[in-house]
Amino acid sequence: MPADELSPGAFRRLAPRPYARARVVLFPHGGGSASYYRPWTTSAPWDIEFLAVQYPGREDRFAEPAPTDMRELVDAVAADLPLAGPPTPTVLFGHSMGAVVAYEIARRLTAAGDPPVALVVSGHPAPHLARPGQVHLGSDDELVEELRRTEATNLDILDNPVLIQAFLPVIRSDYRLSETYRPLPGVRLRAPVTVLHGDRDPEVTAGEAAGWRDATDGAYECRVFAGGHFYLDEHRDAVVELLTARARAMSATSAVPWPSTP
């Protein structure tokens, strides 16, 4: 495990930022892991720390059982929040399944009196418009075909019978979490919400993306990118720049000490 990662727990520090004034926490898509976001550090600035969430059941947490429902996953991530460090201005970002995990964590932080400065969500309908589904009930072959359709994972894994058999239980669990998700009881979100949406994303319509305006009492904004469900791969730098701008907007009020000048 790289020395810059936080362990044990859910949070992985993608690159050390000892003088960071704010942080961005990244929540992976279904079947994804913290390492999906590691390339984002190539364009991440020196003054904003990027952390990624590692869900149970994958990579260095492979031996841990995958959560059985969204509440269990959110409880596990929330329990590890102290490991992410002291309170500091925080932007939460989640793509696909990660969008609703980030949303539920934002509500937990709000209830605890330490709300995020912003929530940025991508590739998922608004929580109250979440689509039910039955992919998680299908056969292994049907699940693999769904992964091919959505381009949700590396094709080399899908074509390797040994790897895919190890990978499918986590994928099935994530589909179950997503397809059975309904907003959990809790406080209403007050943070501003920015929605990112691929203009050819078959998994979320423009109307379902716009529904996020009803998920918060804060400001709402929508940005549309060219691409499908994984438009992020083509627009990574632009998304990192947007997240950085959201984090910097509040960094001036941060209590994090600033280094003195010699």
UniProtKB/TrEMBL annotation:
Q: Where is the Thioesterase domain?
A: 23-244
Q: Which InterPro entries match?
A: AB_hydrolase_fold, TEII, Thioesterase
> Pfam families attached here?
Thioesterase (PF00975)
Chain segments annotated as coiled-coil in the UniProt record? none
Signal peptide, first to last residue: none
UniProt superkingdom: Bacteria
Extract the SUPFAM superfamilies matched here.
alpha/beta-Hydrolases (SSF53474)
What the entry lists under Gene3D superfamilies is as follows:
alpha/beta hydrolase (3.40.50.1820)
PANTHER family hit by this protein: S-ACYL FATTY ACID SYNTHASE THIOESTERASE, MEDIUM CHAIN, THIOESTERASE
Query: What family classification does the UniProt entry report for this protein?
Result: Belongs to the thioesterase family.
Name-wise, this protein is: Pyochelin biosynthetic protein PchC
Species name:
Micromonospora andamanensis
